[in-house]
Design a protein that fits this description.
By secondary structure, this protein is an alpha+beta fold. Helix content is about 60%, strand content about 15%. The protein is globular, with a radius of gyration of 16 Å.
């Protein structure tokens, strides 16, 4: 049996690392109450797509979007093909519930790891919906 990372195309792993770095950068600029509820989903052209679980979080993100854009453009200048000019914020109510279930199952019952993996897949599917 081969390790899973050998079965995944390297461009997907690279993009996942890049998205993780973008998420970390955005979260570093946010208040502690908001950090765990925002995820960068993708960067499409000059638009950064961010998802959160509540409308009030989206409002706070909209007020901070100029600061976030400035930080992203400064921090990722060398890796961006074009500067990010816009942030698109999506609200998805089920993300927090799915993430919490996944963490809870993995920490309490290591044998229920498959359920945690399924929850992670459900999160990814919801993030990729248009």
């Amino acid at each position: 049996m081969r390790p899973i990372h050998t079965l995944i195309d390297t461009k997907f792993l690279t993009k996942a690392r890049y998205i993780t770095n973008l998420t970390s950068s955005v979260r570093s600029r946010l208040s502690p109450e908001l950090r765990d509820f925002c995820w960068v989903v993708d960067i499409i052209g000059n638009c950064l797509v961010v998802v959160t679980d509540r409308p009030e979080h989206a409002t706070v993100l909209r007020y901070q979007q100029h600061e976030l854009l400035k930080q992203i453009n400064e921090e990722f200048t060398s890796s961006l093909s074009v500067p990010v000019r816009r942030i698109k914020i999506k609200v998805d109510y089920q993300l927090t519930q799915l993430a919490a279930q996944s963490r809870k199952l993995n920490s309490r019952h290591p044998e229920s790891r498959q359920t945690g993996i399924k929850n992670c897949h459900a999160i990814l599917e919801r993030l990729n919906k248009p």
